[in-house]
Amino acid sequence: MTDYSDLVQPDKGQDARIIHLVDKKSYDNWLKGRSARERAALEAANYKPDGYAHAILPGDVPESWSVVTAVADVDSLSAWCISKLGTVLPEGRYRLEGRQPGKAMFGWMSGQYRFDNYKSKSETRGPRTLLTTDVGAIAPMVAEVRAVALVRDLVNTPAADMGPATLEKTAERIAKAHGGKLTVTKGEALEQGYPMIHAVGRAAAKHHAPRLIEIDWGKDQHPRVALVGKGISFDSGGLDIKPASGMRLMKKDMGGAAHVLALAELVMASGLPVRLHCLVAAAENAISSDAFRPGDVLKSRKGLTVEIGNTDAEGRLVLGDALARAGESKPELIVDFATLTGAARVALGPDLPALYANDDTLADDLLTSGTERDDPLWRMPLWDGYAELLETDIADLGNAGSSPFAGSITAALFLQRFIPDKTTWAHFDTFAWRPTAKPGRPKGGAALGLRAAWAMLQSRYDRRGKREAA
């Protein structure tokens, strides 16, 4: 496992190789100040200051080489601008010339993530360490990178090893490490108290039995915040079975649970002054003689009845019960994460989580936080005009829209039925997967929206730094 604390360290004047940053505007002037040897090396390499392009600059002796890399804007560094260097340069220490890395520290560390748990021979690589004099920024950035790595690890793990019981063990580790209280409901108690979670997971093998996992943490006098995650450890589609191509990546259908567990750990480890309630609705949507069926009517924890139009629309069912439970504690804010709909991916692609919110201020805060952390979101409408698509003849609502249109919106409208009136709520329909690698962002499990949500929570609830500044 990568020790991220080794990847960014305080700059105490140690020997380190220099990284020169250039962009298209500054490159020509920068080049004039380089030695004849360096200019010749760049010309021989046909170097152009395009995005992520880098080159090695020879020094006076073989050991004194440095690096030049192109960024979009030398005056405003993104999280990803030097992330490629963290994967391609030789191990050793590096510092940026004449500036601090700021949020570029995140990409530098993030790019050095590896998931090789199932390889017979793991690649042995020494760390590429970035130096900074902004010592106070190191620990918070390392915490965010570790949270992202946790999401990646959980999502990348095959479903055989990442069932509801494993999600429970992860929650148990987090709760024990930070003084939280763990509660797990399963078996008959789950069937009676959370009938939709039970129905979705009852066809799975006993060792993958469904459960509701809860962590309570914090002081009663602090604002109550609930984080709710969809934890479908594998989604076959149920009796409305998916085709093979649609089932291949369904180990990632617990990506919402991975996000809220990582976010909960950030909250607890930082001591954020909130009363946290983290809930994971964990189940495997399997097929057996006991599987729930199209046309069944399920009673929910909230008391609403739901007609099953499609057993592959199971995520909203387990979330419905979990959201109802979250609302019983009267939180001032509920945030849920779910790999909920293919419709969101058709609309926004893999990189942009669809954000739904019943409060404009919350939505604006999340969008701003996503921009600040280079973790972008796109707000989608909770359009009440589509609620009629969830109507059914024999129950309070259906779990699948009566039209192929607006699939992500109708899913969000379904969830909204389980949110208490006047409770502020945000829903992330996220992909939790990166189909192709980008600098700092390897192919595979991905935390999409996690850092935006964390930044929003910090901005809303962490007044400690503001008090000190005042």
From TrEMBL:
InterPro entries: Leucine_aapep/pepB, Macro_dom-like, Peptidase_M17_C, Peptidase_M17_N_1. Residues 310-317 form the Cytosol aminopeptidase domain. Coiled coil: none annotated. GO terms for molecular function: aminopeptidase activity. PANTHER family: LEUCINE AMINOPEPTIDASE-RELATED, PEPTIDASE B. Belongs to the peptidase M17 family. This is Leucyl aminopeptidase family protein.
